[in-house]
Amino acid sequence: MRILFAFILGTIVLYSCQSPVEKQPLAATSYFSTGDTGVRMAGIKMIPVQTPVGTFKVWTKRFGNNPTIKVLLLHGGPAAGHEYMECFESFFPEQGIEFYEYDQLGSSYADQPTDSSLWTTERFVEEVEQVRKALHLDKNNFYLLGHSWGGILAMEYALKYQDNLKGLIISNMMASAPDYGKYADSILAKQMDPEVLDTIHQLEARKQTSDPKYMQLLMTHFYSKHICRLAEWPEPVDRSFRHLNGVIYTMMQGPSEFGISGRLANWDRKADLPKIKVPTLTVGGQFDTMDPEHMKWMSTQVQKGSYLYCANGSHMSMWDDQQTYMNGVIKFIRDVDGGK
Fold this sequence. Notes:
The protein contains twelve helices and eight strands. By secondary structure, it is an alpha/beta fold. The chain has two domains: 2-31; 44-179 and 263-337, Rossmann fold (3-Layer(aba) Sandwich). It has helices spanning 2-18, 26-31, 121-135, 149-161, 177-188, 194-205, 212-226, 235-243, 246-252, 292-301, 317-320, 322-337; strands at residues 44-51, 54-63, 70-74, 98-103, 142-147, 167-171, 279-285, 304-310. Helix 3 crosses helix 4 (149-161) and helix 6 (194-205) crosses helix 7.
């Protein structure tokens, strides 16, 4: 009896090992066929970027394969890194959208040189163009999605290199830094406790923004209301904040998201929006650090614009109004790909 049982069990195991694995549907098989050869690197590619002060490497990671839809994600900050944008991994693959996470120079997994001459919008635009070439993106498939500072970078790239684009997504970013500052002062500041606001301003005036109290006040009274409204911040968001390159961020943005005072303080492209001719989606959230009405207006200024409003969203609407945000972005990409 034991011999018979052992024979049957052995037959079952042998059959299980030799049975062919059920094939994925052709679409899924095609999506995961990235053409990698040699040692596979989980889609990660370090791309050399030439700058006026030398050659450095930036970090990219590819997901999927789609010959007509390739989305390059531009993170905010500046220098916040790609990590808070990892939520796209939960949505784009199931839609067959090829996309790339990307750490700009100075951020997270990219090289982090210290020459301050590198931290200009113009130099970052040329970096994006070099990344585009290295990833073989072109006007037949290249969608650029920029969030916050990445939205500034996306607009600047489009104004110089839009012939390389198929579609543009400007997420949670106004077309004017001075207008952004005015919105923070005239609208958002008035929603804060006056004593808290006064303390924040005093710390800024004394250049004590590295004092833990400064960020504690902002986290409690501003960031939790206007950056990400989830009761518990997602781990990728926390990770981005931990990895933020504070030197670059402060130099370009200022000490916090509460207004703007760095090198970008006078940046303004409102008058140039009509020059953008590629299909463009602007995204705004009701509780954003940016004025959602301004971002709606932006969609009327570009030649082929549309607007996505996240009624429950803040600056990181991809997290706190996730379904609205992702469904709207995916619909835009699908519509452009379908020629609508």
